[in-house]
Structures are given as structure tokens and as C-alpha cells.
Amino acid sequence: MSNFVSVTRDNDVAVVTIDNPPVNALSFHVREPLMQALVALRDDASVAAIVIACAGRTFVAGADITEFGKPMQPPELRAIVAMLETIAKPTVAAIHGTALGGGLELALGCHFRVADAGAKLGLPEVKLGLLPGGGGTVRLPRLVGPVKALKMIVSGTPIGAEEAHAAGLVDAIFEGDLPTHTVNFARELARKGGPFTPVRDRDDRLKETDLAAFDAEMADLARKARGLEAPIACAQAVRNAVTLPFDEALAAERALFAGLVASDQSRAQRHLFFAEREAAKVPGKDIVKRRIARVGVIGAGTMGGGIAMAFANGGFSVTLLETSEEALQRGLGTIEKNYAVSVSRGSLTEDTKRQRLAQFKGSTDYADLAGCDLIVEAVFENMAVKKEVFGKLDAVARPGAILATNTSYLDINEIAASVSRPQDVVGLHFFSPANVMKLLEIVRADKTAPDALATVVDLARRIGKVAVVVGVCHGFVGNRMLAARGSESEELLLEGATPSQIDKAFTDFGWPMGPFQMGDLAGLDIGWRNRKARGQTAVIADTLCEQGRFGQKAGRGFYLYETGARSGIPDPEVEALIRDKAAERGIEPRAIGADEIIERTLYPLVNEGAKILEEGIAARASDIDVVWVNGYGFPIGKGGPMFWAGLEGAARIVERLEHWHQRTGKDVFKPAPRLKAMAETGSWEAGATG
Ligand code: 3H9
Fold first, then answer.
1. Residues of the chain with pLDDT > 90: what percent?
2. Helices marked H in 193-224 — which ranges?
3. Are the C-beta atoms of 64 and 26 separated by less than 8 Å?
4. DSSP 4-37
5. Residue in 495, 505, 500, 552 with CA at minimum distance from that of residue 526
6. Are 131 and 153 in contact (CB under 8 A)?
7. Which residues form the pocket of ligand 1, taking CB atoms under 6 Å from any ligand atom?
8. Closest C-alpha residue for ligand 1 atom 6
9. What number of other Cβ atoms are within 10 A of residue 144's Cβ?
10. Most C-beta atoms within 10 A of its C-beta, which of 70, 165, 464, 533?
């Protein structure tokens, strides 16, 4: 017996309970007593059946991720599962909450799996840059068939109990008291008698595989993997389960797992797993949060509408405010259309759509916001306009209501100073489309009250966002670093690179698209307007805008778009324009390689991140990674810019920045002291020693 694994008896049925809060991960201190308990029960003639269950809120949620990268202490999970399969009496896993990764693999070692109706089962290892390494790739196909197993393992998305039951993964679903039902189920099995076939010996579903169709599916996956190794390895392992004898397939899975767990990609993805959870932590965990039931959103344009949908999807009532009835109806109409698209895609039922729409109340009168607990403004990005809106809110909002701005750049301290209750003002910087994009930058102003901050951090989680708390500066973390990344784009063009060469360097790096493709998608007029407001210029982009080349929506921008096409084709006119502008400046075009493109775009990105850390705008380097992966498409396999700096070598980044600084004299290239410190100590922490 241990604190983490206990055995109780209900007459001839033994119940092994794992109790390792918060998620019952299979840490060494669980595996060891679990193995001992199972061996003892196997050899105990008075035990007719064995149930494996968990205490707390969930079944085993997987291996202990913190143990990866260190020597694994025996017994390993695969040894426990192998031992389980030597037991002749019936073994049953009782699943509540989530059976994930190693948790599901443990359950696959049992003869039977039962679940409560709310349980979820899955193998999400791929999201950590891994594959199921406890036999999951070899056993799951034997129960649900190789095609379904391939989908589950490569996507990493868990399925519900009903679906698992229909697929043959779960043998029974019980309502109510799961432990009692499971004990009765196990006793009945023992009474009827065996033999009970372990999953490893069930081959029928494998025979149904059409290998050609399977290979076509695998080829498609490889195309979509964008340089990630884990999805391909997952698919290979499932294929092995079909084509190789059980033990050989298991050995191959083990070898693939060993390769992945030691890879930079998996290290990067594990870093992000913990980084996302860290980012959601703010000091003062026990602060009493404010009650939020009704949310007001001002502005029913693309941004406001998306924000309103994000809150409605999270279960909140929403009052949507516009300046005119016409604009309001247009906004509500778009929301309805968006939900209708979800229904047509099958991701929403007609009933849920109706419920969601019933959560909205439209208004053109600020007085209707008086009942709201949180009000988010998403109006035109202009300080005077924002202050006017906040003035009106100050007059109508109830005391204690949180007043939030969705500004992407503006000084929130200045907005807060314009109202009588700066302690209630916070920034909620959503990313477009706000109902889809995961990232939420929560901007804490100088006077934001700790309970207001804690409330919005909690709220972000409730509406399914990945939240990062940041400080006030122009562009906060994401857009400020984006400006640094883009500061050399025009220069690279003028010196001889084409938009498609630069974009290709980015997509080869793993980004979903390059900066010019992204500019065309977002609309080049947005940056143009911002530059004009700040008295800045960008010779190529400005000229394109003057010619009405606003990007995809205009059919032409940096690229040409055929009607309805999402990807553009290079436009000789744009390349000629670039050469003309270069000639006007006396710049002789030269060949520019991908390395130089990365050095002049991504090294300044990292450098700006270091400055942001120095200034305390972000609390941790890993927060910056969370922003960039979730909001800007930084490749997850590289862990975000600050993690990648470690892979790339901070010393090399410093050296090359110094080179470019000498050549151009530009501030973006001047290595930040924190980056230099990282190069010496290997850590982003202030005051770390090497
Ligand atoms: C695996 O199993 C490999 C095997 O195939 C092969 C082995 C040979 N380990 O997410 P939460 C911590 S790979 C260690 O906020 P929720 C988490 O960091 C694994 N720690 O809760 C957090 O700590 P803190 C495959 C873990 O209710 C706390 O628990 N499994 C682990 O929102 C609460 O987490 C997975 O990938 C872990 N496995 O969501 C599942 N899991 O409080 C990963 C969580 O200090 N886990 N922690 O910040 C999840 O998806 C979610 O945690 C879960 C609960 C859905 C279970």
C-alpha cells in the first residue's frame, strides 16, 4: 500500500485506486506500487476480478510529463501493461473524467473498459511531439480498427464515452455510481468465467484494413504535418500494428517513442504545454473574483461581433451595442450567418444555434449596458474615440463593472486616467476572428485592481482562451514584436529578395504563411492607415496601397489572386515596382539567401522579446512564446521565439545582430542586455548565472 495506490476489497473483487492529484499522472511513485499491487492480486487466489479506478476528478490523464527527458525509473508503463495482460482473471478499467495517453494505454491493458457518460478517452501524445509509447498505437487499432485509431492518434483529440462505446473501445457506460457498477460488472464477468482475451490477441479488426487507402491517408497527413515529426511517426506506428506481428510492432513503437522524446520538437511542445498553464497564473491565487454573468460589447463589426460570439459560446449573456440600428442589425446578421455556417459544417446543432442567438440582446442605447458586469469596447482604434466611449461607460456602468478595451496599440493608462474608476479598467486584446483565435492578451494597466485582473484571467479560461497577462506599451507583446519582425521586410525587398522568396523562407521554417502572404490576407490598408497616423512610411507597401492593391480582398496586393483564390501568384508588376524603387535609391539588387532573411527578421523578433522581458511587459520568456504560438503562428515544433533562441544559440543571435547593427546602425539590431545575458547563462531569468 502507498499514499498513491490503495487496494480495497468488495468480497471477491479487488479495487485498485490510483490517487495522485491533480490528474493522476503515472509518476514513478504511482507506477511502482501499482505494479506491486497488481502482481499481488494476480497471485491471490481469493481474488476473482480486478478493477482499476482513480480517486479525484479524473482517471489517469497520462504519463507524468515532467519525467520526460530524464532516465525513466522502472517499472515503465509498458511493463505494467504487459504484466496486466498476463492476468487470467477479468480486469476492468473504470473510467471517469479523462483517460488520456498513458492512462488510456493502462486501460487498454485491461480486458474491459467501462466509463461514465461524461468520460473522454484519447491519445493526445502527438500534441506533445510524441506518440503513445505504452502500446497505444498497437492496441487501439485492435479495438477500434486501424483507420479510426489513425485519426485518434494523429489528431490527438479525445472522443466521448458514447463514441468510444460505439467504436468498441468501451464495453459499457454506467450512469451514477461508477465504482459500484464496475464492481458488479467485474463480478458478473468472473461468475460467467473466461477465458478472457487480452487486447494484444484480438486481431479481427486488423484484417479489415485496406492498406492502399491507409497509405493515401498517411500521405495526406505528411503533407499537412508542416515539418512536424510526431504525426508521421504516429501514422507509421499504426501501420506497423497492421503489418507486423504484435511484439515487433510494439518494439518499433518503443524505438519511435525514444527518438521523439529526445527531439527538440517534443521538448518545444512540452515547454509550451507547461508555458500555457504558467501564463494563466497571476499573483494572489485566492483573491475573490468579481461575478460576471452579462457581458456588454461595444461595436458589432468583425472584431466586436467575434468577441460577442466568444462570450456567448462560453455561456454568457451578451448585450451588443452599436451606434445605429442599421449597423446593429448588420452585426447581428453576421453573427447569425457565422453560426449557420457552423451548423452546415456539422460543428453546431440547430438547437444550440438557437440557444446561442437567444443569448444576444442588441441595443443602440448606452443605458442598456447598466446591467453588464463586464463591458468590452471594440470601436475604431483612435484615442479620442476610445475616451469618448469610456466617458459614456463611466456614466452608465454599475459600480464594480469591469471596463475593458480591445485596443491593439493604444496606451491603456491614458484611457484609464480618463474615467473616475481606473481600477476597473483593463485591456482585453482579442485576435481576429475573436471567436476562433485562442490567444487573449490581458493588459494590466498601472491602476488595474488585482481582483479585476484575476477575474478576467479566470474568465478567459471559461471562454476557452489561452490568456497571457502583459503590461502597457505600444503594441503590447505581440504587435510590438511583430513590428520588429517586419522592420527589415522592405529593406530585404529593395536589396533584391522577392516577396515569394521571403515568404518561402518563413514557410520552410514552419510558419503557416510568410509576412507578405499575411499582409495580403489581413488587408494592406490597415498597416497603411496606422503608418499614416504615426507619420511613418513603407515605400513598397504604401505604393501598393496608393494603387488600390489592398491584398486578397482587392484581388491584388503583394501577390495576384484569381477570383475566390486564397493563395496568390507572384506578380511581375510588383517585382518591377520593387526594382524601380530600389534603382531610385541607387540599390543594386543581389541574391539574398534564406539564412539572411531569418537573421534580419526573426533575430530582431527575439531581441524585441528580450527588451520586453527587461521592461517587465511580460513576466516570463515562456509567456512570450505562448503569445507567438497561439496568436501569430510561430511553429509549435520550435516552441516560440524565446525557446527557439535557445535552440538556435543565443550567442550566435547576438553575434549576427551585432553584425547587422554595425552595417545598418538600426536599433532593432542592437542586442538587448537580457539577450546577451541569455547568451552567457543559457537562461532568460534575470540574474541567472551560467
Ligand atoms: C503520455 O502519456 C506518454 C505515454 O504514451 C507513454 C509513456 C511511456 N503530467 O491542464 P490543467 C498538470 S504523454 C504532469 O490545468 P485541466 C498541469 O501542468 C501524456 N503534469 O487541468 C497542471 O499543473 P499546475 C499524455 C500534468 O483540468 C495540473 O496538472 N497526456 C499532466 O484544465 C492541472 O492541469 C496528456 O497529454 C501530466 N500528464 O485539464 C494530457 N497533465 O497546476 C495532458 C496535467 O502546476 N493533460 N498536468 O499548473 C491535459 O490535457 C489536462 O491537464 C487535463 C486536465 C485535460 C487532464
1. 90
2. 204-207, 211-224
3. yes
4. SEEEEEETTEEEEEE--TTTT-B-HHHHHHHHHH
5. 552
6. yes
7. 22-23, 25, 58, 61-66, 77, 98, 100-102, 105, 124-125, 128, 130, 132-134, 136, 274, 277
8. 133
9. 21
10. 165
673/675 Cα distance (integer angstroms)? 5
From the CA of 676, how far away is ligand 1's center (Å)? Answer: 34
Residue 296: which H helix or E strand, with range? strand 294-298
Looking at residue 281, what is its pLDDT? 87
* Whole-structure pTM value: 0.94
CA distance 655 to 670: 10
Q: What is the DSSP letter of 53?
A: E
Q: Which of 477, 443, 438 is nearest to 461 (CA)?
A: 438
Give the ipTM: 0.99
Task: Say what the pLDDT of residue 1 is.
Answer: 63
φ/ψ (deg, to 5) at 378:
-135, 55
Give residue 483 CA to ligand 1 midpoint distance, Å: 35
3-class state of residue 510 by DSSP: coil
Which amino acid is present at 444?
R
β-strand partners of 296: 319, 375
Which member of 76, 85, 125, 217 is catalytic? Answer: 125
Give the confidence band of 210 by pLDDT, cuts at 50, 70, 90: confident
> 135 near 78, Cβ under 8 Å?
yes
